[in-house]
Hints:
By secondary structure, this protein is of the alpha/beta class.
Amino acid sequence: MTIVIGSDHAGYVLKEFLKTKLGGEGYRVVDYGTDSEEPVDYPDVAEKVALAVKSSEESLGILVCGTGIGMSIAANKIPGIRAAVCHSGFTARMAREHNWVNVVAVGARVLEPNEAWEVVKEFLSTSFQGGRHSRRIEKITALETKYMSPKYR
């Protein structure tokens, strides 16, 4: 499995920590930046990561910014992306099991590095449950399709 990762300047240090941990677990990691703590605009990074995840069923995404909120909002603008801000292993597990999230967002100003690593580990080790949740994912996809139509633009 390929892990696609990206951060803005606020998340850079945590992103580097997570990359090291992921590499140690044998994951292939593709980094879409940023490469320093110099200010960048998080929507640009979120777009790159989301498009990479969308293009491959064999990848999942990790986004890191100050809170995870801005990155998740931006990533969710890409059709087919289901990004969630997670603050614990529990929220990461529920996001994967019930919402089939393919991108997790974490906040460098919210979580300590080891807490963020726990979120990522749970995100990567949890599968979608399907069943009753599939119907809900289909409804989310229908909303996405409906509101992308020219009628609503």
